[in-house]
Amino acid sequence: MHSIDENETTAPRTSRPLALVTGVGRTVGIGAGVARQLAGSGWDIAFTYWRPYDQRMSWGVECGATDAIDRVLTACGARTAAVEADLADPEAAARVFDAAERDLGPVTALVMCHCESVDSGLLDTTVESFDRHFAVNARATWLLIREYGRRFRGAHGTGRIISLTSDHTVGNLPYGASKGALDRITLAAAHELAHLGVTANVINPGPVDTGWMSEELREACTAETPLGRLGTPQDTAHLVDFLCSPRGQWMNGQLLKSNGGSA
Fold first, then answer.
1. Taking the CA of residue 112 as centre, how many other CA atoms within 13 Å lie in the half-sphere pointing to its CB?
2. Closest CA to 56 of 36, 34, 86
3. Which of 46, 123, 144, 146 suits 87 as a labelling partner, its CA being 20 to 30 A distant?
4. Nearest to 76 by CA among 33, 108, 31
5. pLDDT of 37 strictly over 70
6. In the chain, where do the E strands start and end?
């Protein structure tokens, strides 16, 4: 976990732009795939993780994941900063940006892969769970984007904001509802941050099994996809990489389905 020294100063700019990627706690996750792809494309990477979330999920904490991810990124030539952050905390967004700037410099791209995701429906969702989903998936997204907008000083047209979403709501009410709010918040940034030359887009990766699917669900999702396979973290990472590149500048204010045509 990054510790902040009040005497630290902002790191100098380098020739590599900096991407802040949230939700990079597991080597098999989409966040890790995105971070690897961007590192290979010439970005420095600051990334967040939160072990207590993994600890209470079925897959548990992946021992050594942060160090393993860091090694892969540095092997791609990236400078890195890993920041443990509870994004349910309203103060976390500012602290994450402080850490990224002090270690690596100003953030050019904000890629949000974090989430709270606990299955429950209309009748069995608790108020506590509902509030936690909105705190992490919606409020933290707003606070991270707000922090990014306040601090961005890059050249006009270089800034990028990308959020990952989901349209799953049945039996997964607080997750889907809070992700819907995330969509609206992110797409608003395409217009409200237009004066900065920042683009903002949302990606729906569709069914990507990173260890959370049952065998039954895996077979059902595969059958509903024309290509006969599930999505991979790399599929999402390729689209993020394009959107973050100069070639992706004209894509703005869009909700993009990168789901292989899944029904």
1. 31
2. 86
3. 123
4. 33
5. yes
6. 18-22, 44-49, 80-84, 109-112, 159-164, 198-204, 255-257
DSSP-based three-state secondary structure for 65:
helix
Tokens of 262: 């899944």
Mean pLDDT (the chain) is 91
Measured CA to CA in angstroms, residue 88 lies from 85, 135, 143 at distances of 9, 5, 10
The span from the CA of 104 to the CA of 99, in Å, is 8
* Structure token pair of residue 26: 């597991």
DSSP 194: G
Q: Tokens at residue 240, please? A: 């993020």
Let me know if 49 is a catalytic residue: no
Six token digits for residue 83: 């920041």
The pTM is what? 0.91
| Phi, psi angle pair for 137, to nearest 5° | -80, -35
